Amino acid sequence: MKFYTFDIVKRALFTLILVPVLIVNIGAKSAKNSFQDEPVKVFSQMESAINSGDISSISRFISSQTYISLSNGETGYFSSSQAYYIVQDFFKNYKVISFKFRSVNDADNPYGIGSLVYEFRNRRVTAQVFVSLTKSGNNWLISQFTVK
Amino acid sequence: MKPARPSKYITGEKKYFTAITLLITMIFLAGFISRVYLDKKANNWDIHQVNLSRGITEKFKEEFSERERAIIDAASLLKFLIRDHSNNGIMQTERLYSFAGEGQFDNYHIVVLDSALNVIMVNRGFIFLKGEVENLSKSDRIASSFFYENPLASYLVFSDTLITAKGKYYITIADLVNRKAFYAEGSRYTPLGEKTERSSSLKLNLSFTADAVPNPDGREFSSPILNSSGKKIGLVSFTRPGLRNYIESAGAPVSLLQSLMVVAVALLIPFAVRRDTSKIRQPSIRLALVIIYLIFLRVLIYLLEFTSHIFPEELTDPAKFASGFGLGIVKSPIDFTLTVIFFWIICLLIFRNSVKNKSIAKASAKVFIPVSFVLILSIFPLIRAYAASVKSIIFDSSIRYFKEPEIFPALPTALMNFAGLLMSISFFLIFVSILYAVYSRFHKSDKRKSLAVLILFLAVMSGLGIVFIEIQKQPLINIPIILTIILFSFILLFLTVFEKKSLLNLLWTASVFSAVTGVTLLNLFNSDLERESLKTTALEVNRRSENLIYFLLNESLLNISTSPDIKNVLNGKHTDANSAAFAAWSVSSLRKEAFNSSVTILNNKKKPLGGFVMNLAPEYVDPFVLRYLDTTNSLVVKLDSKEELSHFSGITGVYEKGELTGYVVASVEFDRDMIVNQKFPEVLRSRNIKINSVIDPQNLNIVVYEKGKTKKLQGDFYPDKEQENIIWQTNFAGFNESWQTLEFNSEKYLFYFLKTQKGGKERIISAGLKEKELSWGLFNFFKLFILQVFYIIIFYFGYLVYRNLTFTEYRHSYRSQLFISFLIIALLPLIAIAIYNRMNESKKSLQMLRTALVEKSQLLENHITQQIKSNPAKSPETIFNNAARELNTSFAVYAGGELKYSSLANLASAGILPWKLSPRVTHQLLSVGANEFFTGDNILGESSYSLYKKINLSGTDYIVSINESLNPVNVVVTVLEIDVFVIGIYSFAVVIIILLSGLLSNRISQPIAKLTKATKSIAHGDLNVNLDIKQKGEIGELIEGFKFMTGEIRRNQKELAEQEREMAWREIAKQVAHEIKNPLTPMKLSIQQLIASHQDKAPDFDEIFNKITATVLNQVDILSQIANEFSRFAKMPSAKLEKIDLLPVIRDVLVLYTDEKVKLTFNTKKKKALIMGDTSQLRRMMINFIRNSIQAGAKKIQFELTSNEEFFDLIIADDGAGIPEEVKGKIFNKNFTTKPGGMGLGLKLSKRFIESLGGRLQLEPGGDWKTVFKVTLPQIL
Questions:
Q1: CA distance B537 to chain A (A)
Q2: Is the Cβ pair B276, A8 closer than 8 Å?
Q3: How many domains does chain A fold into?
Q4: Which chain B residues contact residue A109 at CB under 8 A?
Q5: Last-in-domain residue among B671, B699, B728
Q6: How far is A41 from chain B (nearest CA, A)?
Q7: What CATH number corresponds to the domain at position B580?
Q8: Co-location of B262 and B227 in the same domain
Q9: Are residues B620 and B729 in the same domain?
């Protein structure tokens, strides 16, 4: 029996597959790179990421060992996927106007303290940010990310 | 047939395409219109901004009026209740409290004063400060709402009077509108302005004083808050809406509408292309298209991101659950649930397709062998994927499924449980589909052999499962679990193949299996999570550093210094500095991190005005050093440091309108090794912040190792020297961590070790747990199992109700009546017992709590009495302090209805503990004369119970109050445990009852159902029914009687048919004999005459001879004609072959049956089908087939014409009774018939006719149809 319906199938498949198929992606976040980042570089990247709203560029620094405490009440240790989406959601709802680390310390236990100005419900708010890093293998990871 | 007239309406697929086009147009139109509208607004922004601001103010006024109306109505209702029930004008206290306990007053604080301004009723903690009570009776406050503020909260208050025969009463109702201090999480409260804020996406600034003035800064828009009397009682302000924000918020509903329309378009697509897709013959292609479409739809919903606009925040919060799978397609509980629903639909379709089509089983061996090999092996990675998905539910979630305090949990947890169950069912459907696809090839009609093959298959899969686990380095699950999954899958396969269960029954069984395996896996992974959480415990020990303390202190000072209440204390508007300090402290990081800390308010001369202290020594509260340092700017200093303990203090100025009005000092005690601050009151802890929310903190063992010093922080584990050496010699690899099992007191402990560096010193932090505490228990299992069974029962009963309402035959069927009867008989008493037990156990639990508090109060009383005896001169305060310290009990003491002492002096001074005793308590203990009174209470919004006890010390009556929130009491069995036990056991019993009821009702009703079916078959003329039921009793007799009756009817029909056939042949023979006799007689006479003439030598012999021979020949012709007629009667006439088109011949035959109760369809893609044939014989043949099908009980007959290179294939298929296996080989035999009146010639003649045309007639395997004939005819090319 001939495959009479090929034309229809071809048309249907072409139409439907126009939308990118996203499902086949296990553990879809960007993989952690193994190259070494200096703490100062990490803080610098964080600053750019938060200012631009592109959290995916710092997702590799977020892990299940990151303690998160945000001014919207989210506090605690989360899985790396959760932590990423929590931070992403936070910066989606609290629109960043500016963020800058005003002091960075890159000793054995590097940390940075900064000021975050954001807008929430038409109101401009200044919050204090504390970020500390810890070394895991060859990589620096965020051990604490606090926005108060 | 006349062609159909075109309809004046758009019908068929056209209407869907029209709808799609309309929707797409509307999408663009909505975008265009909103753009134009917003641009217009932007151009006149100034005017629009003012209008917008006025609109927001109006919205707020509506919200305020609503709240005000509610409390005014509540006051009226209370007045009515009291007036209506007052007995001779006396206000009975208990009656008052019973009215206040009515549901309508749940959210309000009620105070009732008598004419002497004595408080006679307070329902939920006294909110009015000392000296404020009298103000409630002031005339300007009566029948008029106003705002009342204490340092902890603001209220909207309404006071009214009630005049009875006994006098005047003042009734005050207060609604909490704003919290300034920390309140227990979960206590209900709606801030005033919240609705307006949400709808306008703006933050409102509310002032609750009548003299509030607008901010001169032009950026704010202000409006007075007027009560129902038109009097100004407050002020509402907000930053004027910005254009960008306005465009975003105004555009949001349009975006949402557009998203919904896009989804509607996507939902209409399948209907629009239905005709095209129905032409696809290959079921697997159709299935693939449907799956791709469903994936497309799910991705579309995800990309449009409108779930956050539709569903509540708690369901879209990634903190509840978020997995990285699929780039965010499961990044919240609702996203996960939606994805699982789509996945479930796909798995259901795959399952149905697998069972219906058996395409793999039917394939050739060359295809079947490799495909089945791949399929079988794919099951194991799928099982791993299933386990990984369940693991993600545990690991990627902050929901602690096994620690939820309620048996029926909060919405996110309930949703995740539901999604987990659905996901498990989906995986089981996939497993069964794969097994079915392979096994169905080997399934034969011999049940025993097939069962043996099934069991062999199960054994092979089980063996492979064990191998799969063993070869993995890190298997997610263990051997018993994989064997259970395989066994359950095979049971489902058995039910599908052998028992031929309906889809609903299979789903029900699959649901129960899924609940069992799903909950088992959740339990297993929860144990893994407990192990992993030892990591976070160690990290938490290491998290706090001096750097963090500096940051938190600075940040706290910054926030506290901007607190309006602090400013009001410093500018004299507020007198209660302690409460203001507490309020500021309670919302700061100092409380959230559970530090021993303090906040002190100093005036501009650095003199302390008040403060709040939580477990901090006085020298750190207001340290001298800060008075003398330059503190123009904020300053944080380290006061001291002794080993792990350090103290920090900071100071900052408070400014108002640029002028320094005072200072705030905040101090913190930093214990580097403190995990949980045991001295911190539980009621002040944030529920969300726990050191480890996975493991019960009491089970944690935490030890810190430093060179030369080992410190046990928590638990009972303490390492010996040898163990310490092993730990220090451990290789921590690149990640500074390791795992080890250590033994202590014959118990094994699993420890996680984290190596850190602090101040140049190396430290190892270890967190561990007894290994036996990692194993899961039945309690955990039942806790979740209950919920999943609940979902299954809801679905199942919902479906039963639906079936009963819509299908009358189902409702009245014997089986369903039996089933429902069993359920009612078994479940009703069970439910009654469960409810009774639950009520009793709840009461018992409360009773146990009361007993525990009574014991504490007794110990307290004895201790106090003993102190007085030993030293009567001691002051009451000293006595109480000693008792609190030595008994480790927190309590308060009242005298004269007012608070005189609290062991938690800081909370008392902050106004958290009520300064006035509830009149109900005084009534019970002093008027009624009870010795103690156990009642509900409320501290910082958290409901609890308190015991009040009357004691007499040196002739003075005191009332001691002990509250459970401030004195955690270990109840032997919690309400949760009761619920799990009662409901868990009973739900398990419910499942067993439902299963057994189903089985029993099936078993009992099956013979009746078969009998009913057999009767229907006989009514349709099929007497070859075989009832293979072995039953005893009345049913057995009924069946035997039926079989006998059927046999008799069959025999009688056969005899009748034989007789009729015989009679018919006799008749024909008689007729033939008669017809033959007619010409024979004259023939005989003629021959006799000829003989006589010849013998007589008649002169006209020649003439006679001619005449007689002519007669004889004539009669022979007649005989020949008779024989021909008989022959034509007996056989089909010879075919008249000519070139004909099959299509109209078939269509004309089908038209003959349009009025019959059978559906005839003709499918073909051919436009013409030319053969050499005889039209009338072809027609007769097709009529014969149709008649046979109708007589076999067919409801549908399908004609399908296809072709290959040389031949046409005409498939004639019906769904009638089918042809039994044993007669299939005989149907083309002459005179063979199964019909009582049949000649047995139809199929034989049809076959002969077709073969005469050079074609073939065959009986084909049924497949989806019961009987299938294939007529093959050569084409004319």
A1: 10
A2: yes
A3: 1
A4: 545, 547, 757-758
A5: B671
A6: 20
A7: 3.30.450.20
A8: no
A9: no
B560/B515 same-domain check: no
pLDDT in tens, B1203-1212: 988 899 999 9
Asked if the C-beta of A142 comes within 8 angstroms of chain B's C-beta atoms, the answer is no
Summarize pLDDT for A91-114 with one digit per residue, the tens. 988 989 999 998 888 777 789 999
Q: What is the token pair recorded at B383? A: 């099982």
Cβ atoms B274, B17 nearer than 8 A: no
Boundaries of domain holding B359: 246-440+504-539
**Chain segment B1076-1131, per-residue pLDDT in tens:** 766 677 678 788 888 888 888 888 888 888 888 887 887 788 788 777 767 666 65
| Pick from B1244, B1252, B1178, B1174: nearest CA to B1210 | B1178
Q: At what angle do helices B546-561 and B577-586 cross, to 10 degrees?
A: 130
- A13, A14, A22, A104: best mutation site toward chain B, by most B Cβ within 10 Å? A22
Q: Which ipTM value was assigned to this complex?
A: 0.80
Phi/psi of residue A13, each to 5°?
-65, -40
The answer to whether residues B331 and B318 touch, using CB atoms and an 8 Å cutoff, is yes
Question: Looking at the domain assignment, is residue A53 inside a domain?
Answer: yes
Q: Whose CA is closest to B859, among B881, B877, B899, B886?
A: B886
Identity of residue B266: A
Q: With an 8 Å Cβ cutoff, are A1 and B329 in contact? A: no
Q: State how far Cα B15 lies from the chain centre.
A: 35
**Could you tell me if A85 and B398 are in contact, meaning their C-beta atoms sit under 8 angstroms apart?**
no
Whether residue A10 lies within 8 A of chain B, CB to CB, comes out as no
Query: Which among A12, A89, A122 is the nearest to B203, CB-wise?
Result: A122
Select the highest-mean-pLDDT range: A3-12, B313-322, B673-682: B313-322
The residue range of the domain holding A60 is 37-147
Q: Is residue B809 in a domain?
A: no
> Between residues 32 and 61 of chain A, which touch chain B (CB distance below 8 Å)?
none
Asked if B180 and B152 touch (Cβ cutoff 8 Å), the reply is yes
B689 vs A13, A29, A75: nearest CB: A75
Cβ atoms B417, B783 nearer than 8 A: no
Residue B1267 — pLDDT band, cuts 50, 70, 90? very high
DSSP bridge partners of B174: B109, B157
What is the distance between the alpha carbons of residues B817 and B828, in angstroms, rounded to a whole number? 16
Residue B1203 lies in a domain: yes
Please tell me the predicted confidence (pLDDT) of residue B1025: 62
Residues in chain B within 8 Å Cβ distance of A22: 299, 302, 326-327, 329
Which band of pLDDT confidence, cut at 50, 70 and 90, is reported for residue B91?
Answer: low
Cβ of A81 and B322 within 8 Å? yes
> Considering the domain boundaries, does residue A104 fall inside one?
yes
Inter-chain CB proximity A67 and B543 less than 8 Å: yes
Residues B650 and B623 both lie in one domain: yes
Shared domain for B724 and B767, answered yes or no, is yes
β-strands B956-963, B932-939 pairing: unpaired
d(CA B836, CA B821): 23
Element (H, E) at B172: strand B167-179
Give the Cα separation of B238 and B52 in Å (integer). 12
Question: Within a domain: residue A13?
Answer: no
Give yes or no: residues B657 and B719 share one domain.
no
- Residues in chain B with CB shorter than 8 Å from the CB of A65 are 535-536, 539
Measured in degrees and rounded to the nearest 5, phi and psi for residue B214 equal: -65, 155
A67, part of any domain: yes
Q: How many CB atoms lie within 10 A of CB B716?
A: 11
Q: Note whether B705 and B728 are within 8 A (CB).
A: yes
The answer, yes or no, to whether residue B882 has pLDDT greater than 60, is yes
Interface size between A and B, measured as CB pairs under 8 A: 168
The CATH number for A124's domain is: 3.10.450.50
E-state strands within B916-987: 932-939, 942-953, 956-963
A124 vs B1203: CA distance, rounded Å: 76
